[in-house]
Design goal:
Structural class: mainly alpha
Order of helices and strands: HHHHHHHHH
Oligomer: single chain
Number of domains: 1
Length: about 160
């Protein structure tokens, strides 16, 4: 798991109901290009009710882009290919789909901010910790009292 994904999970841990399910059901899955989400979907019968509801909510929001994708980027694969295509046609995207992409952009930006704020603390306290399966987050949580104010603030989000 990359540091960015680990920090995103840390940010979301208190609020996002799928963190525990992802750690339990998808710990061996390398994050990126929707791999963890695909894993969670494969284990939909084992998800906690709260995680299942959150995934359904996300899917409903993402459906606001279905017609736009079919019209503007037919045959594109989910991930970078589709994102690039949608960016190329951003002036033709529906307002609902544009709102969805704005939310996703904001979440990525929050992750970048968390990474920047916590990188020095990760290097200082967790340099020898192997990334993956929540180990970096656990390490940061063990050092919560010593974290820089910027990282500590990000960990509380």
């Amino acid at each position: 798991m990359s540091l960015l994904v680990a920090l995103l999970l840390a940010q979301a841990q208190a609020a996002h109901p799928c963190v525990a399910d992802a750690q339990k059901l998808c710990s061996g899955v390398k994050a990126g290009h929707g791999a963890v989400v695909a894993c969670l979907k494969q284990h939909k019968d084992q998800l906690s009710p709260a995680c299942g509801a959150k995934i359904s909510e996300f899917q409903e929001e993402a459906e606001s882009c279905t017609a736009d994708v079919e019209k503007l980027c037919p045959g594109s694969k989910p991930g970078p290919e589709r994102m690039n295509c949608m960016r190329e046609h951003k002036d033709q995207v529906s307002p609902e789909c544009r709102d969805f992409f704005m939310k996703m952009h904001e979440r990525r930006e929050e992750g970048r901010e968390a990474k920047a704020a916590c990188q020095p603390d990760v290097e200082k306290y967790c340099g020898g910790v192997q990334p993956g399966e929540g180990r970096i987050i656990a390490c940061l949580q063990q050092h919560q009292a010593n974290l820089s104010p910027a990282c500590s603030s990000q960990m509380k989000h």
